[in-house]
Amino acid sequence: MSLQDWLNNKWIIPHRTSPQEIGDLILIADRDIIQSQIQGLDNDTRLSTAYNAALQCCAAALAATGFRASREAHHYRLVQSLKYTLNIDASIVRLLDDFRKKRNISDYERAGTVSQQEATEMIGLARNLRKLTEQLIVKSHPELLE
Q1: What is the DSSP letter of 90?
Q2: Could you write out the DSSP letters of every residue in 24-56?
Q3: Which tens digit of pLDDT belongs to each residue from 87-145?
Q4: Rg (CA), the chain
Q5: Which listed CATH number (1.20.1440.230, 3.90.870.10, 1.10.10.10, 1.20.120.330) goes with 18-141?
Q6: d(CA 53, CA 45)
Q7: CA 108 to CA 9: how far, in whole Å?
C-alpha cells in the first residue's frame, strides 16, 4: 500500500498547502501540547488535547506531501498516513490509533476512562510527532517554512 493507492481509493485527495497552513497546524499542535500539561486538568482532557496536537502533526505531514485526508474516517486516515509521511513504525501508529479510540470513548461515551499514565504517554507521543513533523518539513519541504 502507498499514498498512490490511498489516492486511488479516494482516502486522500490532492492538496496544495502553503507555509501559512503548515505554520498554523504546527502552532495548534504547540498550543495543545502546552495546554495538555496544565496542572489540574483531568486525564481525559489531557489525553484529548494531546491527541489533537498529534492529529495536527499528522495533517501537517500529509499536507506537506501534497494531500489531505478525505472526510470519511478523517481522523483514522490521518493517523494511518504516518506510515507514509513520517515513516513511523507500525507499533507507534497502532498506539496513536488506540489513543484515538480512547479519546472517542472519553469525549463521547464515558468520563474518567483515561489513566494518568495514558495521558502522559499521549503527551510524549504528541511531542515526538511534533519534532518528527518539523524534521520532515525542514529536510524535504523547506519551501513550506515561514
Answers
A1: H
A2: HHHHHHHHHHHHTT-TT--HHHHHHHHHHHHHH
A3: 999 999 999 999 999 998 998 999 999 999 999 999 999 999 999 999 999 999 999 98
A4: 15
A5: 1.20.120.330
A6: 12
A7: 29
Nearest by Cα to 32 from 11, 60, 8, 62: 60
Contacts of 68 (CB under 8 A, 6+ apart): 12, 13, 15, 59, 62
Q: What is the C-alpha to C-alpha distance for residues 25 and 57, in angstroms, rounded to an integer?
A: 7
- Using a cut of 0.90, tell me whether the model's pTM lies above it: yes
- For 124-136, write each residue's pLDDT tens digit: 999 999 999 999 9
**Domain boundary assignment for the chain:** 18-141
Cross-strand bridge partners of residue 67 = 14
> Residue 146 pLDDT > 90, yes or no?
no
Give the torsion sign (CA, 87, 91, 97, 103). Answer: negative
